[in-house]
Amino acid sequence: MLLGFKTELKLNDRQRTQLAKHCGVARHAWNWGLWLTKNLLDHNKTNPNERLKFPTAIDLHKLLVAMVKPENPWYYECSKSTPQQALMALREAWKRCFNKTAGVPKFKKKGQRDSFTLEGTVKILGDNKIQVPVIGILKTYERLPQVLMKSCTISRSADRWFISFRFDVKQQEVCHTSIIGVDLGIKTLATLSTGEVVQGTKSYKKSAAKLSRMQWLNRHKVIGSNNWKKAQLALAKLHRKIAKIRSDTLHKLTTILAKNHGVIVIEDLNVSGMMANHKLAASIADMGFFEFRRQLTYKCQLYGSKLVVVDRWFPSSKTCSNCGIKKETLSLGKRVFECSHCGFKIDRDLNAAINLSKTVS
After folding, report:
1. Where are the alpha helices (DSSP H) in the chain?
2. 109-168 pLDDT, tens per residue?
3. Distance in angstroms (rounded) separating the CA atoms of residues 229 and 182
4. Burial of 31 (0-12, 13-18, 19+ CB in 10 A)
5. Are 308 and 359 in contact (CB under 8 A)?
6. What is the DSSP string of 263-319?
7. Considering the entire predicted model, what is its pTM?
8. Which of 33, 49, 92, 261 has the maximal Cβ count within 10 Å?
9. Taking the alpha carbons of 173, 178, 181, 182 in that order, is the dihedral positive or negative?
Protein backbone atom coordinates (compact mmCIF):
# COMPACT_ATOMS: atom_id res chain seq x y z
CA MET A 1 0.00 0.00 0.00
CA LEU A 2 1.01 3.64 -0.43
CA LEU A 3 1.92 5.60 2.68
CA GLY A 4 2.38 9.37 2.83
CA PHE A 5 5.31 11.14 4.49
CA LYS A 6 5.36 14.86 5.30
CA THR A 7 8.11 16.89 6.94
CA GLU A 8 9.25 20.48 7.31
CA LEU A 9 11.93 21.95 5.06
CA LYS A 10 15.00 23.87 6.25
CA LEU A 11 15.31 26.73 3.74
CA ASN A 12 17.31 29.86 3.01
CA ASP A 13 15.88 33.08 1.54
CA ARG A 14 16.72 32.15 -2.06
CA GLN A 15 14.92 28.83 -1.77
CA ARG A 16 11.89 30.46 -0.15
CA THR A 17 11.66 32.84 -3.12
CA GLN A 18 11.90 29.93 -5.58
CA LEU A 19 9.17 28.00 -3.79
CA ALA A 20 6.93 31.08 -3.75
CA LYS A 21 7.46 31.46 -7.53
CA HIS A 22 6.44 27.85 -8.12
CA CYS A 23 3.32 28.37 -6.02
CA GLY A 24 2.49 31.42 -8.14
CA VAL A 25 2.89 29.47 -11.39
CA ALA A 26 0.71 26.61 -10.12
CA ARG A 27 -1.94 29.06 -8.93
CA HIS A 28 -1.91 30.99 -12.22
CA ALA A 29 -2.21 27.79 -14.28
CA TRP A 30 -5.11 26.56 -12.12
CA ASN A 31 -6.99 29.88 -12.33
CA TRP A 32 -6.41 30.16 -16.08
CA GLY A 33 -7.63 26.59 -16.67
CA LEU A 34 -10.64 27.13 -14.42
CA TRP A 35 -11.55 30.34 -16.26
CA LEU A 36 -11.26 28.58 -19.61
CA THR A 37 -13.31 25.53 -18.63
CA LYS A 38 -16.03 27.63 -17.00
CA ASN A 39 -16.38 29.71 -20.17
CA LEU A 40 -16.56 26.49 -22.20
CA LEU A 41 -19.33 25.10 -19.99
CA ASP A 42 -21.24 28.39 -20.26
CA HIS A 43 -20.90 28.26 -24.06
CA ASN A 44 -22.23 24.68 -24.17
CA LYS A 45 -25.14 25.68 -21.96
CA THR A 46 -26.19 28.65 -24.10
CA ASN A 47 -25.44 26.93 -27.43
CA PRO A 48 -26.63 23.31 -27.15
CA ASN A 49 -26.32 22.81 -30.94
CA GLU A 50 -22.66 23.93 -31.01
CA ARG A 51 -21.28 22.05 -28.04
CA LEU A 52 -17.51 21.93 -27.59
CA LYS A 53 -15.59 18.98 -26.18
CA PHE A 54 -14.51 19.39 -22.58
CA PRO A 55 -10.69 19.48 -22.60
CA THR A 56 -8.48 16.90 -20.94
CA ALA A 57 -5.46 17.84 -18.82
CA ILE A 58 -3.22 17.31 -21.87
CA ASP A 59 -5.42 19.60 -24.00
CA LEU A 60 -5.29 22.29 -21.33
CA HIS A 61 -1.51 22.08 -21.11
CA LYS A 62 -1.10 22.36 -24.90
CA LEU A 63 -3.25 25.50 -24.86
CA LEU A 64 -1.26 26.84 -21.91
CA VAL A 65 2.04 26.38 -23.76
CA ALA A 66 0.65 28.03 -26.90
CA MET A 67 -1.32 30.91 -25.36
CA VAL A 68 -0.11 31.67 -21.83
CA LYS A 69 3.61 30.90 -21.62
CA PRO A 70 4.71 33.28 -24.43
CA GLU A 71 2.93 36.17 -22.68
CA ASN A 72 4.29 35.25 -19.22
CA PRO A 73 8.05 34.56 -19.45
CA TRP A 74 8.28 33.97 -15.67
CA TYR A 75 6.74 30.54 -16.36
CA TYR A 76 10.16 29.45 -17.67
CA GLU A 77 11.80 30.22 -14.32
CA CYS A 78 9.96 27.27 -12.76
CA SER A 79 9.72 23.56 -13.42
CA LYS A 80 7.53 22.59 -16.37
CA SER A 81 5.82 19.95 -14.23
CA THR A 82 4.33 22.61 -11.92
CA PRO A 83 1.62 23.89 -14.34
CA GLN A 84 1.14 20.36 -15.70
CA GLN A 85 0.31 18.97 -12.27
CA ALA A 86 -1.93 21.96 -11.49
CA LEU A 87 -3.99 21.33 -14.64
CA MET A 88 -4.16 17.60 -13.87
CA ALA A 89 -5.49 18.45 -10.40
CA LEU A 90 -8.04 20.80 -11.99
CA ARG A 91 -9.24 18.04 -14.33
CA GLU A 92 -9.67 15.69 -11.36
CA ALA A 93 -11.60 18.41 -9.51
CA TRP A 94 -14.00 18.77 -12.45
CA LYS A 95 -14.33 14.97 -12.61
CA ARG A 96 -15.41 14.88 -8.95
CA CYS A 97 -17.82 17.73 -9.65
CA PHE A 98 -19.40 15.93 -12.63
CA ASN A 99 -19.72 12.75 -10.52
CA LYS A 100 -21.43 14.85 -7.81
CA THR A 101 -18.93 13.85 -5.13
CA ALA A 102 -17.66 17.44 -4.74
CA GLY A 103 -18.65 20.99 -5.57
CA VAL A 104 -17.55 23.27 -8.39
CA PRO A 105 -13.80 24.09 -8.30
CA LYS A 106 -12.94 27.55 -6.97
CA PHE A 107 -10.34 30.10 -7.94
CA LYS A 108 -7.23 30.16 -5.77
CA LYS A 109 -5.97 33.18 -3.86
CA LYS A 110 -2.39 34.11 -3.07
CA GLY A 111 -1.33 33.09 0.42
CA GLN A 112 -4.17 30.61 0.96
CA ARG A 113 -3.18 26.94 0.86
CA ASP A 114 -0.18 27.61 -1.38
CA SER A 115 1.22 24.38 -2.82
CA PHE A 116 2.62 22.81 -5.98
CA THR A 117 3.65 19.36 -7.21
CA LEU A 118 6.96 18.44 -8.85
CA GLU A 119 7.68 15.45 -11.07
CA GLY A 120 10.85 14.14 -12.65
CA THR A 121 14.25 14.08 -10.95
CA VAL A 122 13.00 13.71 -7.38
CA LYS A 123 15.26 11.60 -5.20
CA ILE A 124 16.49 11.40 -1.62
CA LEU A 125 20.16 12.12 -1.00
CA GLY A 126 21.38 10.98 2.39
CA ASP A 127 19.40 11.25 5.61
CA ASN A 128 18.03 14.78 5.38
CA LYS A 129 18.47 15.99 1.79
CA ILE A 130 16.10 15.69 -1.15
CA GLN A 131 16.74 16.74 -4.75
CA VAL A 132 13.91 18.30 -6.78
CA PRO A 133 13.84 19.75 -10.34
CA VAL A 134 15.03 23.35 -10.95
CA ILE A 135 15.16 24.26 -7.25
CA GLY A 136 17.94 21.79 -6.45
CA ILE A 137 18.75 20.19 -3.10
CA LEU A 138 16.48 20.92 -0.13
CA LYS A 139 17.30 20.11 3.49
CA THR A 140 14.87 18.75 6.09
CA TYR A 141 14.87 18.85 9.88
CA GLU A 142 14.20 15.14 10.32
CA ARG A 143 15.53 11.96 8.76
CA LEU A 144 13.93 10.92 5.49
CA PRO A 145 12.91 7.34 4.62
CA GLN A 146 15.30 5.86 2.08
CA VAL A 147 12.77 5.08 -0.65
CA LEU A 148 12.21 5.68 -4.35
CA MET A 149 9.59 8.20 -5.49
CA LYS A 150 8.49 9.91 -8.69
CA SER A 151 6.87 13.10 -7.41
CA CYS A 152 6.51 15.30 -4.36
CA THR A 153 4.25 18.12 -3.17
CA ILE A 154 5.58 21.23 -1.45
CA SER A 155 3.15 23.34 0.57
CA ARG A 156 3.22 26.37 2.85
CA SER A 157 1.54 26.75 6.23
CA ALA A 158 1.93 30.28 7.64
CA ASP A 159 5.71 30.90 7.38
CA ARG A 160 6.79 27.24 7.20
CA TRP A 161 7.29 25.05 4.15
CA PHE A 162 6.61 21.30 4.06
CA ILE A 163 7.38 18.54 1.58
CA SER A 164 5.28 15.39 1.21
CA PHE A 165 5.49 12.29 -0.94
CA ARG A 166 4.14 8.75 -1.08
CA PHE A 167 5.97 5.44 -1.14
CA ASP A 168 5.15 1.74 -1.03
CA VAL A 169 5.18 -0.11 2.29
CA LYS A 170 4.39 -3.70 3.19
CA GLN A 171 1.31 -4.41 5.24
CA GLN A 172 1.99 -5.88 8.64
CA GLU A 173 0.51 -9.18 9.76
CA VAL A 174 -2.31 -9.33 12.28
CA CYS A 175 -0.94 -10.00 15.77
CA HIS A 176 -4.01 -9.11 17.88
CA THR A 177 -7.47 -10.68 17.99
CA SER A 178 -9.23 -8.38 20.46
CA ILE A 179 -12.41 -6.54 19.51
CA ILE A 180 -13.02 -2.98 20.68
CA GLY A 181 -15.91 -0.58 20.18
CA VAL A 182 -15.29 3.15 19.90
CA ASP A 183 -18.02 5.72 20.51
CA LEU A 184 -17.16 9.26 19.43
CA GLY A 185 -18.64 12.20 21.26
CA ILE A 186 -18.51 15.94 21.87
CA LYS A 187 -17.93 15.95 25.63
CA THR A 188 -15.17 13.37 25.29
CA LEU A 189 -13.44 12.52 22.03
CA ALA A 190 -13.80 8.74 22.35
CA THR A 191 -15.16 6.22 24.81
CA LEU A 192 -13.81 2.70 24.40
CA SER A 193 -15.71 -0.47 25.22
CA THR A 194 -12.91 -1.33 27.68
CA GLY A 195 -14.03 1.59 29.83
CA GLU A 196 -11.19 3.90 28.88
CA VAL A 197 -12.15 7.51 28.08
CA VAL A 198 -10.04 9.68 25.75
CA GLN A 199 -10.49 13.38 26.34
CA GLY A 200 -10.43 15.67 23.33
CA THR A 201 -7.93 18.54 23.30
CA LYS A 202 -10.61 21.05 22.14
CA SER A 203 -7.83 23.19 20.71
CA TYR A 204 -10.17 25.58 18.90
CA LYS A 205 -12.35 26.16 21.95
CA LYS A 206 -9.30 26.93 24.09
CA SER A 207 -7.91 29.39 21.53
CA ALA A 208 -11.23 30.93 20.43
CA ALA A 209 -10.89 34.01 22.67
CA LYS A 210 -7.33 34.71 21.51
CA LEU A 211 -8.31 34.16 17.88
CA SER A 212 -11.28 36.51 18.21
CA ARG A 213 -9.10 39.17 19.81
CA MET A 214 -6.51 38.97 17.02
CA GLN A 215 -9.20 39.22 14.35
CA TRP A 216 -10.73 42.21 16.16
CA LEU A 217 -7.39 44.02 16.28
CA ASN A 218 -6.86 43.31 12.57
CA ARG A 219 -10.20 44.71 11.39
CA HIS A 220 -9.04 48.26 10.57
CA LYS A 221 -5.54 47.57 9.24
CA VAL A 222 -4.84 48.68 5.67
CA ILE A 223 -4.81 45.65 3.40
CA GLY A 224 -1.32 45.12 2.01
CA SER A 225 0.47 47.18 4.65
CA ASN A 226 3.30 45.75 6.75
CA ASN A 227 1.16 45.69 9.90
CA TRP A 228 -1.59 43.86 8.00
CA LYS A 229 0.93 41.26 6.77
CA LYS A 230 2.23 40.76 10.32
CA ALA A 231 -1.31 40.31 11.64
CA GLN A 232 -2.17 37.84 8.86
CA LEU A 233 0.95 35.81 9.65
CA ALA A 234 0.11 35.74 13.36
CA LEU A 235 -3.43 34.55 12.57
CA ALA A 236 -2.09 31.85 10.25
CA LYS A 237 0.32 30.65 12.94
CA LEU A 238 -2.47 30.37 15.49
CA HIS A 239 -4.70 28.46 13.05
CA ARG A 240 -1.79 26.11 12.30
CA LYS A 241 -1.22 25.53 16.01
CA ILE A 242 -4.92 24.68 16.54
CA ALA A 243 -4.90 22.24 13.62
CA LYS A 244 -1.62 20.59 14.66
CA ILE A 245 -2.82 19.97 18.24
CA ARG A 246 -6.01 18.35 16.93
CA SER A 247 -4.10 16.28 14.35
CA ASP A 248 -1.56 15.10 16.93
CA THR A 249 -4.30 13.85 19.26
CA LEU A 250 -6.08 11.99 16.48
CA HIS A 251 -2.86 10.41 15.17
CA LYS A 252 -1.90 9.10 18.61
CA LEU A 253 -5.36 7.65 19.29
CA THR A 254 -5.82 6.00 15.88
CA THR A 255 -2.30 4.51 15.96
CA ILE A 256 -2.88 2.96 19.40
CA LEU A 257 -6.22 1.49 18.31
CA ALA A 258 -4.95 0.08 15.00
CA LYS A 259 -1.76 -1.38 16.53
CA ASN A 260 -3.22 -3.00 19.63
CA HIS A 261 -6.58 -4.41 18.48
CA GLY A 262 -7.57 -6.86 15.79
CA VAL A 263 -11.05 -5.43 15.13
CA ILE A 264 -12.15 -1.82 15.72
CA VAL A 265 -15.87 -1.07 15.51
CA ILE A 266 -17.12 2.49 14.96
CA GLU A 267 -20.41 4.06 13.95
CA ASP A 268 -21.08 5.57 10.52
CA LEU A 269 -21.67 9.15 11.66
CA ASN A 270 -23.43 11.65 9.39
CA VAL A 271 -20.88 14.40 10.02
CA SER A 272 -22.21 16.80 7.39
CA GLY A 273 -25.72 16.43 8.80
CA MET A 274 -24.47 16.96 12.35
CA MET A 275 -22.63 20.10 11.25
CA ALA A 276 -25.97 21.59 10.17
CA ASN A 277 -26.82 22.00 13.88
CA HIS A 278 -25.37 25.46 14.56
CA LYS A 279 -25.30 24.79 18.30
CA LEU A 280 -23.01 21.77 17.97
CA ALA A 281 -21.16 22.49 14.71
CA ALA A 282 -18.12 24.16 16.32
CA SER A 283 -17.69 21.38 18.88
CA ILE A 284 -18.03 18.66 16.24
CA ALA A 285 -15.49 20.34 13.97
CA ASP A 286 -13.14 20.79 16.94
CA MET A 287 -13.12 17.02 17.56
CA GLY A 288 -12.43 16.04 13.93
CA PHE A 289 -14.77 13.04 13.47
CA PHE A 290 -14.14 12.74 9.72
CA GLU A 291 -10.35 12.93 10.15
CA PHE A 292 -10.55 10.25 12.87
CA ARG A 293 -12.25 7.81 10.50
CA ARG A 294 -9.89 8.68 7.61
CA GLN A 295 -6.79 8.00 9.69
CA LEU A 296 -8.23 4.84 11.22
CA THR A 297 -9.11 3.48 7.76
CA TYR A 298 -5.57 3.53 6.35
CA LYS A 299 -3.87 2.64 9.63
CA CYS A 300 -6.00 -0.50 10.01
CA GLN A 301 -4.93 -1.46 6.51
CA LEU A 302 -1.28 -0.75 7.37
CA TYR A 303 -1.16 -2.65 10.68
CA GLY A 304 -3.32 -5.56 9.50
CA SER A 305 -6.31 -4.90 11.74
CA LYS A 306 -9.93 -4.72 10.60
CA LEU A 307 -12.22 -1.69 10.71
CA VAL A 308 -15.95 -2.36 10.99
CA VAL A 309 -18.33 0.54 10.35
CA VAL A 310 -21.80 -0.02 11.82
CA ASP A 311 -24.87 1.51 10.16
CA ARG A 312 -25.69 4.99 11.42
CA TRP A 313 -29.23 3.92 12.36
CA PHE A 314 -27.99 1.23 14.73
CA PRO A 315 -29.44 2.11 18.21
CA SER A 316 -26.15 1.86 20.09
CA SER A 317 -27.12 4.41 22.74
CA LYS A 318 -30.73 3.27 23.23
CA THR A 319 -29.98 -0.45 23.64
CA CYS A 320 -29.10 -1.89 27.03
CA SER A 321 -25.68 -3.54 26.88
CA ASN A 322 -26.69 -5.89 29.74
CA CYS A 323 -30.05 -7.35 28.62
CA GLY A 324 -30.44 -6.03 25.07
CA ILE A 325 -33.75 -4.22 25.58
CA LYS A 326 -34.13 -1.10 23.44
CA LYS A 327 -35.50 2.17 24.76
CA GLU A 328 -38.01 4.07 22.66
CA THR A 329 -36.60 7.53 23.45
CA LEU A 330 -33.36 8.82 24.92
CA SER A 331 -32.65 12.54 25.01
CA LEU A 332 -29.19 13.85 24.20
CA GLY A 333 -28.91 15.56 27.58
CA LYS A 334 -29.28 12.31 29.52
CA ARG A 335 -25.73 11.11 30.05
CA VAL A 336 -26.50 8.02 32.18
CA PHE A 337 -28.33 5.06 30.66
CA GLU A 338 -30.87 3.43 32.99
CA CYS A 339 -32.59 0.24 31.85
CA SER A 340 -36.22 0.03 32.98
CA HIS A 341 -36.22 -3.75 32.41
CA CYS A 342 -33.17 -4.97 34.38
CA GLY A 343 -32.28 -1.82 36.33
CA PHE A 344 -28.79 -1.65 34.82
CA LYS A 345 -27.07 1.75 35.08
CA ILE A 346 -24.08 2.78 32.95
CA ASP A 347 -22.56 5.82 31.28
CA ARG A 348 -24.33 6.53 28.01
CA ASP A 349 -21.18 6.61 25.84
CA LEU A 350 -19.71 3.48 27.44
CA ASN A 351 -23.00 1.67 26.85
CA ALA A 352 -22.87 2.64 23.17
CA ALA A 353 -19.25 1.50 22.84
CA ILE A 354 -20.02 -1.91 24.37
CA ASN A 355 -23.00 -2.36 22.03
CA LEU A 356 -20.78 -1.52 19.06
CA SER A 357 -18.21 -4.15 20.10
CA LYS A 358 -20.97 -6.77 20.37
CA THR A 359 -21.99 -6.32 16.72
CA VAL A 360 -18.92 -8.37 15.72
CA SER A 361 -19.09 -11.99 16.82
Report:
1. 13-46, 57-63, 81-98, 203-217, 226-260, 271-275, 281-287, 289-303, 348-358
2. 998 899 999 998 899 998 899 999 999 999 999 999 988 888 899 999 999 999 999 888
3. 43
4. middle
5. yes
6. EEEEE---HHHHHT-TTTHHHHHHHTHHHHHHHHHHHHHHHT-EEEEE-TT--TTTB
7. 0.83
8. 33
9. negative
